[in-house]
Amino acid sequence: MSAQTPGRLATFFATDDDWEREGSISLGDWILGATVLVGSLVTLELIRGVGTLDSSHAPIWVEWLTVISGAVLLVFRRRFPLTIAILAGVHMFVSGVWVPMVMGLLPMQVIYFVAFFAGAAWARRRRDMVIVMGMITLFMLAWVAWQFAVGAGFDEIRESTADSEGSSLIGPVTAYVLLTTVINLLYFFGAIVGGQVSWRGARQRAELAGQAETIAAQSAQLQRRAVIDERLRIARELHDVVAHHVSVVGVQAAAGRKLLERGRPDDIAGAAGALGNVEASAREGVTQMRSLLGTLRDPASDADPDGPEAPGEGVRRPEPRLADLPALLDEAREGGLRLDYEGVGPVDTLPVPLAHSVYRIIQEALANVRRHSTADRARVVLRVDPSAASPYAEVEITDNGRPRHATSGSGLGLLGVRERAAVRRAEVDIGPRAVQGFRVRVRFPLEAAVVAASGAAR
């Protein structure tokens, strides 16, 4: 127990803490000093009026100087805490020797207590505070003991208690000494412990303020990051929408032009169908772009993408998901691409955000096939395996074509695929196949909730 005591005291007084409590001289310090000065002088003169100071042989100006100098200490107590504590100890000793009646006044005792309290509460370095305040306390206790042992303290106590019966257990002199010692211990240790508690409270408030600033900075950073992520998401969406529908428009327009060049009646009917597909695809592309632009104008409307549309906002639609995949595949088939689709596993259990990413990846891959490849056949496979060692959902798009000359794109489409995959920590495999054609494969890890939902669906 005794070996742990120094460690506990060091922890309580935070001797290894480098935090410094900043203190300055404020208007409030001057007001406090002036208030204490006036109260001390009034108390001094009232005590003089009742004759208590008759035994004091010091001049009045010395008594006033003692009170004034003590009150001045309070003004600088927070700016120079340990220096003021030392000066208060010296002031207490000197006034106790020369004008003990003035030193014993209640206002003066309050001045000393506040000075010692401030020394513990505002000291910049805690180790220095422990040393200085400990030395002041030991000196004052030694001074009290010296007064009893060497001075006339015992004689005065015997004279004042000569007619007192006292207690049968403790004599009057012993009781007086013990009582004086206890009062001084409570006085000095109360100031030091109270000041340390005040310092710890300020330390905690500073930590909370620092944490609040950190949280505010992180919150602002997260907000900026969220805005950037949302811009990237909308950029990907806009690219996918425009690329897909523009490629459809291009293919259908080219087919219609060739049919019109032939001039046969059947070809004219086919050209009309192709132009109808151009119109439908253009209308769908414009509708989806308006939906994205509506999101930009009113981000709060994304809170419930499946909710009812507000009046006058008929162009706003939910983001596409797996339920819209058949229409996307049919649109690619109408453009002349022979397209096969296969769903393996519980694909209907995919959450909406993941299903949306899968849809956009398929859309971008098929748009690239139409724009940059000579392929006439493609295959889309969506696999969901919640029972694997590492449950996953995988989408794979392959074709049988070769790169078409003079059709190199910006690369933003495949970049968008990689960004979607990175957001969900997915594996990406994009590139030419070993035999012929091109492949886009993305494998998403499934979360535990999705795996549980898949098991329940079975």
UniProtKB/TrEMBL annotation:
<feature type="domain" description="Histidine kinase/HSP90-like ATPase">
    <location>
        <begin position="353"/>
        <end position="448"/>
    </location>
</feature>
<feature type="region of interest" description="Disordered">
    <location>
        <begin position="296"/>
        <end position="322"/>
    </location>
</feature>
<keyword id="KW-0547">Nucleotide-binding</keyword>
<dbReference type="InterPro" id="IPR036890">
    <property type="entry name" value="HATPase_C_sf"/>
</dbReference>
<keyword id="KW-0902">Two-component regulatory system</keyword>
<keyword id="KW-0067">ATP-binding</keyword>
<keyword id="KW-0812">Transmembrane</keyword>
<feature type="transmembrane region" description="Helical">
    <location>
        <begin position="30"/>
        <end position="50"/>
    </location>
</feature>
<feature type="transmembrane region" description="Helical">
    <location>
        <begin position="82"/>
        <end position="99"/>
    </location>
</feature>
<keyword id="KW-0418">Kinase</keyword>
<feature type="transmembrane region" description="Helical">
    <location>
        <begin position="130"/>
        <end position="149"/>
    </location>
</feature>
<keyword id="KW-0808">Transferase</keyword>
<dbReference type="InterPro" id="IPR011712">
    <property type="entry name" value="Sig_transdc_His_kin_sub3_dim/P"/>
</dbReference>
<feature type="transmembrane region" description="Helical">
    <location>
        <begin position="56"/>
        <end position="75"/>
    </location>
</feature>
<dbReference type="Pfam" id="PF02518">
    <property type="entry name" value="HATPase_c"/>
</dbReference>
<keyword id="KW-0472">Membrane</keyword>
<keyword id="KW-0597">Phosphoprotein</keyword>
<feature type="transmembrane region" description="Helical">
    <location>
        <begin position="169"/>
        <end position="195"/>
    </location>
</feature>
<dbReference type="Pfam" id="PF07730">
    <property type="entry name" value="HisKA_3"/>
</dbReference>
<dbReference type="GO" id="GO:0046983">
    <property type="term" value="F:protein dimerization activity"/>
</dbReference>
<dbReference type="GO" id="GO:0005524">
    <property type="term" value="F:ATP binding"/>
</dbReference>
<feature type="transmembrane region" description="Helical">
    <location>
        <begin position="105"/>
        <end position="123"/>
    </location>
</feature>
<dbReference type="InterPro" id="IPR050482">
    <property type="entry name" value="Sensor_HK_TwoCompSys"/>
</dbReference>
<keyword id="KW-1133">Transmembrane helix</keyword>
<dbReference type="InterPro" id="IPR003594">
    <property type="entry name" value="HATPase_dom"/>
</dbReference>
<dbReference type="GO" id="GO:0016020">
    <property type="term" value="C:membrane"/>
</dbReference>
<protein>
    <recommendedName>
        <fullName>histidine kinase</fullName>
        <ecNumber>2.7.13.3</ecNumber>
    </recommendedName>
</protein>
<dbReference type="GO" id="GO:0000155">
    <property type="term" value="F:phosphorelay sensor kinase activity"/>
</dbReference>
